[in-house]
Amino acid sequence: GQCVKICPVGALHEKIDLKNLNHDLKNPMKHIVVQMAPAIKNTIGEEFGILPGTDITKKMVAALKDLGFDRVFSTDFSADVTIMEEGTEFLDRFTNGGKLPMFTSCCPGWINYAEINHPEFLDNLSSCKSPQQIFGALSKSYYSKISGVEPSEVYSVSIMPCTAKKDENIRDTMMDHEGNKDVDMVITTRELAKLFKLNKINLAGYEKEEEFDRLLGEGTGAARIFASTGGVMEAALRTVSDVLGETSHSLEYKEVRGFEGVRRANLVLAGKEVNVAVINGIKNATPFLESVKKGETTVDFVEVMACVGGCLNGGGAPAPDNMRVVATRKIGLYDSDEKSALRKSHENLEVKKLYEDFLGKPGGHKSHHLLHTHYKSRKK
Ligand code: SF4
C-alpha cells in the first residue's frame, strides 16, 4: 500500500493555506513569481495518474500560468548558478590549500543535521546557498532590475519536493537586512497538485504547453540531475573538469550514480587526483564523518542528500509505493538530461548573461553578498 512519507530529518510537515495563495494568484495587483525545482517535472504527473518519470515540464509551465503566476521560472537556472559558485569555491579550496573535504550545501535536511549533530564540520560546508535560496535572492535583485518591479513588490514562491525547504526559507540568513525573505512561500509538489485540483486543472488531460519565462528560466541537463542522489556531484564535476582543462572525461560520471548508501570515486582530472564521495540518505552521514575524523577516509569533495535517492524521493514528493518507483523517476530524469541541448552548467546562456550583466564573476563580491551564507552550531 501507499507508504507514509516522512522527512528523514523531521522537518516541518506540510501546513500552508493554499486558499490564500489561490486568492492572491487571482489578484492582478500582486506580482507573484514562481520557481519549480528539478524534481517536480518528473514526479508531479503521478498525482494525476501519469507514469512515474514522465517529463511534463512544458505542461507545467502552461498550467502554472493558468493558475495566475505572473512569471514562471525554473530552479534549474539557479542550480546551474549553484554549480558556478560551488565549483569555483571547491577549486579555490582544492588548489589554494583551503578546508577539505568540502561538502555540498543544497540539501537543508543535511544542513540542519550538520548544525545539530556535527558542528565540527561546519567549516567544511560549502558557503553557497541552495538553489532555492539562490533563486529567491536573484528574484529580489536581478529579476527586479530587469523587470522594473520593486523587490518589495515581488512575491517569490517556490515549488519543492521537500518539507525541509519550508524551514530553510525562514532562516535569518535567508533575508535582506530589512527582513525581506529571499523566498516568501514554499509549497511542496503534493500541495501544488492540490492547488491544481482546487482549480480543476487535470494535468493528465491538459493539452497546453509553454516555455519558461526568459532570463531565469533556462536550465541545463546538469541542473536537472540535481534531483537525484549523485546528481549534484556529477553536475559539479562536469564544470570543474572543464575548468581544470580535462578533455578525456568530462560529461557523464557514472561512477557517482547508483543507489548505494555511500559511493566513492577516485578521478584524475587534468593530471590531478580528486577523491569524491556521495552520501545517499542521512543515516549514512555519521559513520562517514567519523571515518573522515579518524583519518580513515581521504576525500576532497562530498555530496550529501538526506533523502534516500535524493529529492526524487523527497518528503514533499508524491508518495512512492516502493523504491522501484523512485528508480523509474530517476531513469526519466537522466533521460531528460541526455535530451538537453546543454548539459554543463557553465554553458547555460542565461547564467552567462547573469554574470556578464549583474554578478560579475563567480565567487565575486556581489555573489558573496547575495548567494552565500554561513552556518551555526545548534548542538545541545
Ligand atoms: Fe529536501 Fe532533497 Fe534534501 Fe530530501 S534530499 S531533504 S528533498 S533537499
From TrEMBL:
Domain of life of the source: Bacteria
Species of the source: Psychrilyobacter piezotolerans
Listed name of the protein: Ferredoxin
Keywords, in A-Z order: 4Fe-4S, Iron, Iron-sulfur, Metal-binding
Full-protein interval shown: 189 to 568 of 568
Signal peptide annotation: none
